[in-house]
Amino acid sequence: MEALKAKGIKPALAVIIVGDDPASKIYVKNKKLACEFCGIESLEYALPAETTQEELIALIEKLNNDHNVSGILCQLPLPKGLDEEAVINTIKYEKDVDAFHPVNVGKIMIGNFDFLPCTPAGVMELIKESGIDVTGKKCVVVGRSNIVGKPMSMLLLHKNGTVTVCHSKTQDLAAECREADILVAAVGVPELITGDMVKEGAVVIDVGMNRLPDKRLVGDVAFDEALEKASAITPVPGGVGPMTIAMLMKNTVKAAELNQTGK
Ligand code: GUN
Asked: What CATH number is attached to the domain comprising 230?
């Protein structure tokens, strides 16, 4: 960041939000606040739900070619009728601060990457900063999404974990979870992971963000029960969420370095 400042470069993050999904609006607002806090310019493009695929693609192409834009993020999910895959594929991979573009996904698989997806990167940072060594540990990731589960399992593998990925067709989820030294829950099912599914001394990381009918925000882990067993555990809110945003800021600075200094 300091090196960029010396060159007169201010990283800029373009955030596109289509429609008015309340959760997405909150995420985008938090990303904007983080940019302001870090001295990153934030460019918000709030488009109506009726936006066409062509209009959205045209905006991304404009941002791809704008030398003042370091990173581009299109908040997901998109309203029905818009093609998320086409949108992800259109974002120039050098500006893809979400690391969702197939080129970036492939680079992560190989282990030679510029960007990591923000949520899994945030989880790895929490693990590292807590002094937890992944090498040889049994890691269980619950959830196989492209945004979290799949890249999460790859990052744990890069750190020499023995990784199991569980999903809705897993036969005995509780038994798999009970094997975990490091358990990452990323399925979007409120409090799916109960205390009896946690091994004594396990590290429990909750990526879930579920709004209950009574408006309470809970994770994928029954926190109070899991707390009794875990040696370390993340709460919801206030656990992985802030780390995700911090990693987005890091990726945006990286994008500015890649795009604006020719590094
Ligand atoms: N929706 C939920 N998580 C994310 C994310 O990390 N990036 C984007 N673009 N959309 C999301």
From this structure: 3.40.50.720
What is the per-residue pLDDT across 182-215, written as a single tens digit (0 to 9) for each?
999 999 999 999 999 999 999 999 999 999 999 9
Whether residues 22 and 129 fall in one domain: no
CA 211-76-69 angle, to 5 degrees, is 130
The pTM (predicted TM-score) of the whole model is: 0.96
Percent of the chain with pLDDT over 90: 95
Active-site position among 96, 98, 114, 181: 98
The rounded Å distance from CA 100 to ligand 1 centre is: 9
Under 8 Å CB-to-CB from 192, ≥6 apart: which residues?
Answer: 142, 185, 208, 220, 221
Q: Is the CB of 74 under 6 A from ligand 1?
A: yes
The position carrying tokens 């990283």 is 11
Q: What share of the chain is helix, strand, coil (3-state, %, to 5)?
A: 45, 15, 40
Q: Please report whether residue 110 resides in a domain.
A: no
- Report pLDDT digits (tens) over 169-178: 999 999 999 9
What pLDDT score was predicted for residue 261? 64
Residue-number span of the structural domain to which 47 is assigned: 2-91
CB count, 10 Å around CB of 76? Answer: 18
Catalytic residue list contains 263:
no
Ligand 1 atom nearest to CA at 73: 9
Residue 98 catalytic? yes
